[in-house]
Write a structure and sequence with these properties.
Blueprint lengths: L4 H20 L15 E3 H8 L3 H9 L12 E3 H15 L8 E3 L4 E3 L5 E6 L4 E7 L6 E7 L3 H7 L1 E3 L26
Parallel strand pairs: 5-8
Antiparallel strand pairs: 1-2, 3-4, 5-6, 6-7
Length: 185
């Protein structure tokens, strides 16, 4: 027997609205390509367009986003909003040098501990290079094209995986093998 609709509908409507708000307000890097350069935006319009909270847009104004004037409603030029978002994102980038990998826990590029990394091929053109952060001992990963793997070889000692041996190449099979004397030493 199902519960009455009057009991279940308010709960489901509350959780559904909370889910929508969390999903729309969880943008970490607002997309500057959504902004039109020839348009002026109010704080609320800019927040809605970029899926951020309006207090975040107000904080950007306090931290240097130029406005048209000091009168209400506060208007932001689209061209200046795009420039502000690009500068803000570029200031946070930390490019890795040759042989470095980005450590998520330390929030900075690091050389791997003892200069040792593992080589894991992904496809014919790209490999995943794994290493350990010297500061926090967490795993670091970096995708590198095979054409640029030479830069890693100069800065780090790469361990290449060895292929697994086939059963016919093993001189002494394991104890739990199903072979009944078929393998010749």
């Amino acid at each position: 027997m199902s519960p009455p609709e009057s009991i279940s509908s308010p709960i489901s409507s509350i959780s559904a609205s909370a889910t929508v708000n969390v999903a729309t307000m969880s943008k970490r890097h607002p997309n500057h390509r959504l902004v039109k350069i020839h348009r002026n935006y109010t704080v609320e319009e800019a927040a809605r367009l970029l899926s951020i909270h309006k207090n975040t847009a107000r904080q950007w104004i306090r931290s240097g986003l130029p406005t048209i004037d000091d009168k209400r409603p506060i208007l932001i030029r689209g061209r200046e909003l795009i420039a502000f978002l690009k500068i803000r994102r570029a200031g946070r980038k930390q490019p890795c040098q040759a042989g470095q990998m980005y450590c998520v826990r330390c929030h900075s590029p690091q050389f791997p501990a003892a200069g040792m990394v593992d080589y894991r091929p992904l496809n014919g053109r790209v490999v995943n290079v794994r290493g350990i952060c010297p500061n926090c001992n967490s795993m670091m990963h970096r995708c590198v094209s095979i054409a640029r793997i030479e830069q890693f070889i100069e800065k780090a000692d790469i361990t290449f995986p060895q292929a697994l041996r086939h059963l016919g190449e093993i001189s002494q099979p394991t104890v739990n093998s199903d072979l009944r004397g078929d393998v010749q030493p």
